[in-house]
């Protein structure tokens, strides 16, 4: 049996709780596959898990996406074969490693035109944008969406996806440089929410009407303001908590603010079924291969530097997607 370097943590905490250990990697069982990684993706959800916001049984490995080559497939796996180039986003966490055995259902064959680093960077964030814009609220060309953290990993993909659909995306970001980047990637309007009142600016930009939907991954710091940006019966999509969890609130607020709708989706529910996951991935690959969506890898780290990667993500100094190379 071979071994692989794997990042684990034994107690929730800061980036320092992660450590690199050697672990055995066995053969795949029924429905499983063994993958040798070339790169792994870094995502904000990894920070929620490491810090205990999303608790995991401990000790636990981290990382929810990767790309590499299939080394072996278990019984009953028909969509993959040894030697295939693949990429995936999948639970449970365990992708920060050289090689692993995992369920095959969420593992997708990577088109030859997409390199491993891009494959590792794009799956979790790209599939998220796929469901946000196509499976969450009916959106059509001409609609207006407010998207927070528009220069981040999910954000830059969202800017481009919205542009491709003819949706007017108003992006927020924490610095002027990030705002410029979001605009370059397709945001129709940008707001630096660290120095501007984003609610007032959104009202200005929509002639007082409000936006059709808000896609809010910031959580606590923006939730109430985001509700104030919506038109009557508009849809609040709360899909993350980078600033902390949204505190419990009175549902009556939705009525008082204009009969608003609210949803709290997760990618892992959308991709739980193999067929749907593979079809969402095919859609994402098509968007990338057509050039409508470009994956910007803003940061790259070696596996052993994962703590520094987490520090930078938490310090809000990253833009676009981040990858670990193995
Ligand atoms: P990002 O690259 O977007 O990084 C997070 C960004 O959030 C930061 O760069 C920063 O941008 C902004 N931010 C605002 N306040 C804070 C804060 N207090 N601490 C840290 N960051 C802050 O990350 P990802 O692309 O990986 O993910 C984006 C969001 O989407 C995350 O919240 C993630 O959990 C969520 N997500 C949810 C999914 C789901 O299905 N529900 C799936 C995938 C992602 P700025 O400086 O511009 O404000």
Automatic annotation (TrEMBL):
GO terms for cellular component: cytosol. It comes from the Bacteria. Residues 13-324 form the Enoyl reductase (ER) domain. One of its GO terms (molecular function) is NADPH binding. InterPro entries: ADH-like_C (IPR013149), ADH-like_N (IPR013154), ER (IPR020843), GroES-like_sf (IPR011032), NAD(P)-bd_dom_sf (IPR036291), QOR-like (IPR047618), Quin_OxRdtase/zeta-crystal_CS (IPR002364). The keyword Magnesium does not apply. Keywords: NADP, Oxidoreductase. PANTHER family: QUINONE OXIDOREDUCTASE PIG3-RELATED, QUINONE OXIDOREDUCTASE-RELATED. This is NADPH2:quinone reductase.
């Amino acid at each position: 049996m071979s071994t692989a370097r794997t990042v684990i943590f034994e107690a929730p905490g800061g980036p320092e709780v992660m450590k690199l250990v050697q672990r055995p990697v066995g053969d795949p069982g029924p429905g499983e596959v063994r993958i040798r990684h070339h790169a792994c993706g870094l995502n904000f959800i990894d920070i929620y898990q490491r810090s205990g916001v999303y608790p995991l049984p401990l000790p636990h490995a981290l990382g929810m996406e990767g790309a590499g080559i299939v080394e072996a497939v278990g019984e009953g796996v028909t969509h993959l074969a040894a030697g295939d180039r693949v990429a995936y986003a999948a639970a449970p966490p365990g992708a920060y490693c050289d090689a692993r055995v995992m369920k095959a259902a969420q593992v997708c064959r990577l088109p030859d035109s997409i390199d491993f680093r891009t494959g590792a960077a794009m799956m979790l964030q790209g599939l998220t944008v796929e469901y946000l814009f196509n499976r969450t609220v009916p959106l059509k060309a001409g609609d207006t969406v407010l998207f927070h953290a528009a220069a981040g990993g999910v954000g830059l993909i969202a800017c481009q996806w919205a542009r491709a659909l003819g949706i007017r995306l108003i992006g927020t970001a924490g610095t002027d440089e990030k705002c410029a980047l979001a605009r370059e990637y397709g945001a129709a309007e940008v707001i630096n929410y660290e120095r501007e009142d984003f609610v007032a600016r959104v009202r200005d930009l929509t002639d007082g009407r409000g936006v059709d939907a808000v896609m809010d991954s910031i959580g606590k710091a923006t939730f109430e303001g985001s509700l104030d940006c919506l038109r009557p019966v508009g849809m609040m999509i709360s899909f993350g908590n980078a600033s902390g969890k949204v505190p419990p609130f009175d549902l009556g607020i939705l009525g008082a603010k204009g009969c608003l709708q609210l949803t709290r989706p997760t990618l892992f529910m959308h991709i739980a079924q193999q067929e749907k996951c593979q079809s969402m991935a095919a859609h994402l690959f098509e968007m990338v291969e057509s050039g409508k969506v470009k994956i910007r890898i803003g940061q790259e780290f070696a596996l052993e530097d994962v703590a520094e990667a987490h520090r930078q993500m938490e310090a809000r100094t990253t833009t676009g997607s981040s990858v670990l190379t193995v």
